[in-house]
Amino acid sequence: xxxxxxxxxxxxxxxxxxxxxxxxxxxxxxxxxxxxxxxxxxxxxxxxxxxxxxxxxxxxxxxxxxxxxxxxxxxxxxxxxxxxxxxxxxxxxxxxxxxxxxxxxxxxxxxxxxxxxxxxxxxxxxxxxxxxxxxxxxxxxxxxxxxxxxxxxxxxxxxxxxxxxxxxxxxxxxxxxxxxxxxxxxxxxxxxxxxxxxxxxxxxxxxxxxxxxxxxxxxxxxxxxxxxxxxxxxxxxxxxxxxxxxxxxxxxxxxxxxxxxxxxxxxxxxxxxxxxxxxxxxxxxxxxxxxxxxxxxxxxxxxxxxxxxxxxxxxxxxxxxxxxxxxxxxxxxxxxxxxxxxxxxxxxxxxxxxxxxxxxxxxxxxxxxxxxxxxxxxxxxxxxxxxxxxxxxxxxxxxxxxxxxxxxxxxxxxxxxxxxxxxxxxxxxxxxxxxxxxxxxxxxxxxxxxxxxxxxxxxxxxxxxxxxxxxxxxxxxxxxxxxxxxxxxxxxxxxxxxxxxxxxxxxxxxxxxxxxxxxxxxxxxxxxxxxxxxxxxxxxxxxxxxxxxxxxxxxxxxxxxxxxxxxxxxxxxxxxxxxxxxxxxxxxxxxxxxxxxxxxxxxxxxxxxxxxxxxxxxxxxxxxxxxxxxxxxxxxxxxxxxxxxxxxxxxxxxxxxxxxxxxxxx
Amino acid sequence: xxxxxxxxxxxxxxxxxxxxxxxxxxxxxxxxxxxxxxxxxxxxxxxxxxxxxxxxxxxxxxxxxxxxxxxxxxxxxxxxxxxxxxxxxxxxxxxxxxxx
Lengths: 666, 100
Fold this sequence. Notes:
By secondary structure, chain A is mainly alpha-helical. Chain A has 2 domains: 2-574, no CATH class; 585-636. Chain A is 70% helix and 4% strand. Chain A has helices spanning 2-16, 21-35, 40-67, 98-121, 128-147, 151-169, 184-213, 249-264, 273-276, 282-291, 295-303, 305-310, 312-335, 339-359, 363-390, 403-406, 408-422, 428-444, 447-471, 491-503, 514-523, 532-557, 571-576, 578-584, 589-637, 644-665, and strands at 75-85, 88-96, 238-240, 246-248. Chain A is globular, with a radius of gyration of 30 Å. Chain B has 3 helices and no strands. In chain B, helix 1 (4-24) packs antiparallel against helix 2 (28-53) and helix 2 (28-53) runs antiparallel to helix 3. Chain B starts with a helix and ends in a 13-residue tail after the last helix. At the A-B interface, helix 26 of A face helix 1 of B.
């Protein structure tokens, strides 16, 4: 036993160092693209190659990881001590365990496809070096996030993806407005600010962890001294929150991290930034929604699941937030007309599924859905990018229709993505979504939330049916558009992702559960027994979803041109009125923020600018001081009249006074 | 023998004339000559005291003053010529371009 472990440890030492290459390669790509390379083709190739190489290294690392005995499947490499303050030492250390491995494979795999797709999608863009550099930096930040062995390094990546989303959403910063009436620079700022609100929660959680555990490391250098190992020791301690009463330390940490998660993973009530985030180029939307950024919150909860296992109140909040978000996102997606906005709200809804699953303790199911969703949502976004590309930047589905004939390849690919998202048997989304629903119904027995999720999944099928009908079905509604299908090198990422959308479910289908076994060293979840009643449950949900999806398709496919016109409301608005309108505005969360936070804040800022800054600071302090000095100087300048004789007079009078003083005064 | 006080009185008179010349005359040339007058009044005082104390120290100072005055005349006259070429006048009241 001892010898075997030493062998394993030696193996770990041997293969640890190169996992640092995984984040290093995109970082090198970023630096070269940002500083050296100034050629569009070279930018794209370099960016894609660096992420693809990182994917290769990650695959190699996974193979080595799988060769280790299950209990020691954790590679670590400490590059250097990052900072050391008093008793707290934070190392620049990387961690590669089964959970990190699946995240890294998703990020680099889907990320690389998005990079390759970008090369033709962004052809002719004004700022290719900038775009690809930021794309690389985005992937680097996300890799740091999932590979960090401590919370502070995770926070570095966490902030990094926030920064990169800001930079990439604002890629078209010089445009006043992009469809449907979003100002890119404002959308970028909105994403940043909404994320900052959540980040404050994560910072507070870190401070609590430091003060109670004295370390930010997940597992410590020896794998046993991190705060996750010690969480049980402090689970009985409470902290006082002044007027709010007292709360257990672990619950407080869980709640504060949940706030961070709502910001980064676009959960209620901080999801408002995600629908606007599509102001960026479409591949960026795919990157934000599928492979990176929004999955960070789910990852954080699963990584620190020990905290949530101990704090059942925090975990139940996670579940509620996830369930509510799933429903808000699904209802909002029902009503949108912008092809990308449907997908954006759909992402919010699907993230709600993952968060709810994590809250209910179904961590494997959450990661499983994260993976499948990463694949088919990337497919849908890249597919919608192909549509937008083919229609020359038209995103309004009211102006589309009939694209089935003009874009047959995109139609087929998109349909696959839609079926996967809708959770239709046997596509990827069916397996992962049903695992969440089954867990909620049979194991967590949280029927309220599960019913919310089932309703959301029915809406999901409905809005995808509606989108397929509006986009591809029926007749072309706008004769001014001349759709053409010219995919070029964009088609290979689409084909690969479409393949993934079909078969990704095999990762964790009942009876096989590879993912479950793979994540077992991290999550220690028991394999759930598959029973006949669960099979019936799954059959019912998928039949309902299929029915709902077909209903959506049927309803919108039979409408003719007179019923759906650009600039007009959806026909359903006639029947549902304000409810429909409320759905369309994302349940008015944005409105509340604008009305009660943004506008008062802007008024306050205007007051500070016009009165305090312009009048008090500029008027009195700055210009007043300058004016006073100027007046004094003018007074002194009068003596310098340029008249030599008056200088001479002063000089002589001075001499007379000095001599007089010396001779007579002393 | 003429008493020392008379020489010193003459020296003081010449110096005063020089000062007044510098302060009151507008012509740069006259100002210049007034300065020379002041220097020579000082020279007169120096040789007077040298005579009084029977010492050559003060007379040496006179040679220094004459030398410096000669150098000053050379530079000053050159300046004057340049100014005259620029302004077509030697009236020093017109030379006020260094006004603050």
